[in-house]
Amino acid sequence: MKKRKDILGESIKPAINVNPLAHPKASDEAKKQLLELQLRMVTSSINHEYARIELADDDSFERREELLEYMHLCRRQYLEARSELEIYDPYALADFEADLIRQKQATIAPYQA
């Protein structure tokens, strides 16, 4: 099996900037809380995408209902974390979301065909 760097090349850099949005002088506890919110956004967003992909391929009514409920939960978690992060720095949040969208397009979209 090929390793990721063999497929993508040597210039692999993190596509999602998961650094605390806090001011550099913020306390370690504040930075930790902001990082946890960012990670919650990333996790719920990726989980939502994978559930959406599975939903498109599943014909079982019961499973589709489960997936729709799970997708709703993921979306709610994402929006809750996003609203908390928006308080700190809306511009940094916009950059973070743009990074997240680019990452999802680069990693998930090619496998949906």
How big a fraction of the residues is strand? under 5%
What count of domains describes the coordinates?
1
How many individual β-strands? 0
Unreliable runs: 1-12
Secondary-structure element order, N to C: HHHH
Q: Profile the largest sheet.
A: none
Q: Provide the gyration radius in Å.
A: 17 Å
Q: Can you give the mean pLDDT?
A: 81
Instruction: State the end-to-end CA separation.
Output: 21 Å
- Can you count the helices? 4
Gist?
The chain has 113 residues and is an all-alpha fold.
Note the topology.
Blueprint: H1 4-8, H2 28-57, H3 61-88, H4 90-107
Helix pairs in contact: 2-3
Summarize the structure in words.
The protein is mainly α. The chain has one domain (29-111). It is 72% helix and 0% strand. The protein has four helices and no strands. It has helices spanning 4-8, 28-57, 61-88, 90-107. Mean pLDDT is 81; it is low at 1-12.
Keywords:
mainly alpha, disordered N terminus
